[in-house]
Amino acid sequence: MDAGPEANAQHAAFDAVSFLQAHGIRITEPRRRIAELLLGRPQHRSAEQVTDALRREGFRISKATVYNTLNLFASHGLLRELAVDPRRSWFDSNTSRHFHFHDVRRGVLSDVAVAEVQFARLPEPPPGMEVESVEVVIRVRPKGESPAG
User: Fold this and answer.
1) Does 9 score more than 50 pLDDT?
2) Which residues are CB-contacts of 69 (< 8 A; sequence separation ≥ 6)?
3) Is the pLDDT higher at 133 or at 34?
4) Strands (E), the chain
5) Which tens digit of pLDDT belongs to each residue from 63-73?
6) Of 16, 68, 103, 125, which cross-links 129 as Cys (Cβ 3.0–4.6 Å)?
7) Which pLDDT score, from 0 to 100, does residue 12 have?
């Protein structure tokens, strides 16, 4: 999850204020800080990870403010909320179409290109409905370890 020097340089160059203003989001200090943390490069983080990262930087913020901000960003299409783990919400700054591996031991997500997954066919949707999207999460664990129970 921590970035190397090259990613940190890209992260530092990201202009969160202009980005948020371009998407019609009013600037507040929490929104700016969360945008700087998440939106400068593709990554996956839970609300808890965002809260912890900001607090490590010395920024006082409530988990409720983090959730509200992440949901605001998602409603504007800046993040995708992922249904990966029933215990926490994950947010993905890569909003392009793709799937995920979920390392259940380390709690880490990684992207899988759409072209890497093949479906023979999908079931017919209910009458009057059409498929909007397909979400795929492939849960993985180290070879030889028994499934979590």
Assistant:
1) no
2) 30, 31, 34
3) 34
4) 44-46, 80-85, 88-92, 99-103, 108-112, 137-140
5) 999 999 999 99
6) 125
7) 55
Kindly indicate whether the domain formed by 5-92 is annotated with CATH number 1.10.10.10: yes
CA atoms within a 13 Å half-sphere pointing along the CA-CB vector of 144: 0
At 84-105, the pLDDT tens digits run: 878 888 999 999 999 999 998 8
Residue with tokens 């997500």: 109
The identity of residue 63, as a single letter, is: K
Domain ranges of the chain: 5-92, 99-140
Report the DSSP beta bridge partners of residue 103.
Answer: 108, 140
Nearest to 70 by CA among 89, 97, 98, 96: 89
Task: Write a three-state SS string for 51-87.
Answer: HHHHHHCCCCCCHHHHHHHHHHHHHCCCCEEEEEECC
